[in-house]
Design goal:
CATH superfamily of the domain at 178-251: Nucleic acid-binding proteins
Radius of gyration: 65 Å
Largest sheet: 5 strands, mixed, barrel
Oligomer: single chain
Order of helices and strands: HHHEEEEE
Helix content: 40-55%
Distance between the termini: 217 Å
Shape: elongated
CATH topology of the domain at 178-251: OB fold (Dihydrolipoamide Acetyltransferase, E2P)
Number of strands: 5
Strand content: 15-25%
Number of helices: 3
CATH class of the domain at 178-251: Mainly Beta
């Protein structure tokens, strides 16, 4: 019994000790809860203060973004139009110098639109045929118009004869040469052979050099005879060798 009492006596204080310590633990837990709630309460107003600060830039951000968005197209619009207009006008100068193949290549390189859809060989052939037909129609219309113009011009010219223009190379008669010589032969019919004598001084030695030449002249009446002194004038070609005509007989032979 004594042992049981000894065993029970220490158990009582052990049971009482936790009951006595329970309020202490509850107080510590309350303090920890208060300490945990205190910073939460302190942080709450900070969050409330940060909230309007975060909302303020959100409200101002679209206003700031809208301003450049509205101004950007207005400021860049003329620049874009000028940039697009400049390359269109620039290739006009070398268009005459470049070949058709180079012009097509340049046009394709400057093309900024969407790519054409893929086509089959039959579709491409059909497009070529349609383009050829359109060109043939335009060509036929142009030729018909030119034919009508030519017909109208021909009819107007027949109705009102135009003035004859002076020829570019008018038949102008120049000064014909006249020679004087002695008849050396009159055997041919209507033709005489005339000897023309020349006398000139030598350019270096200053000696009188005499020379002569013969020509054939036309004598229509067979008036001149051998030994006569005659005057002949230049004329058109009358035969293979005759280029002169008899003007008159200056002196008869004795």
């Amino acid at each position: 019994m004594a042992d049981e009492q000894d065993n029970e006596t220490p158990e009582t204080p052990e049971a009482e000790t936790p009951e006595a310590e329970a309020p202490a633990e509850e107080a510590a837990a309350a303090e920890e809860t208060a300490a945990a709630e205190a910073p939460a309460a302190e942080e709450a107003p900070v969050v409330e203060e940060e909230t309007p600060a975060a909302e303020t830039p959100e409200a101002e951000t679209p206003a700031a973004e809208e301003t450049p968005v509205a101004e950007t197209p207005e400021a860049e619009a003329p620049a874009i139009s000028e940039a697009t207009a400049t390359p269109v006008a620039a290739p006009a100068e070398p268009a005459e110098q470049l070949s058709s193949k180079e012009r097509r290549r340049t046009a394709r390189s400057t093309h900024s639109g969407e790519a054409r859809p893929a086509r089959s060989s039959e579709e491409r052939h059909a497009e070529r045929l349609a383009e050829r037909r359109a060109k043939a129609v335009a060509r036929r219309a142009r030729r018909l118009q030119e034919r009508v113009k030519r017909t109208a011009k021909r009819q107007s010219g027949a109705a009102t004869p135009t003035e004859q223009l002076a020829p570019v190379h008018a038949p102008v008669e120049g000064r014909r040469s006249v020679r004087q010589g002695v008849v050396v032969s009159d055997k041919a019919d209507k033709t005489i052979t005339v000897r023309i004598d020349f006398a000139r001084r030598h350019r270096r030695y200053e000696k009188i050099v005499r020379s002569s030449s013969t020509l054939h002249a036309h004598d229509e009446q067979n008036d001149a005879h051998e030994g006569d002194t005659v005057r002949v004038i230049e004329s058109r070609p009358l035969s293979k060798n005759k280029r002169w005509k008899l003007v008159d007989v200056l002196e008869r032979a004795r």
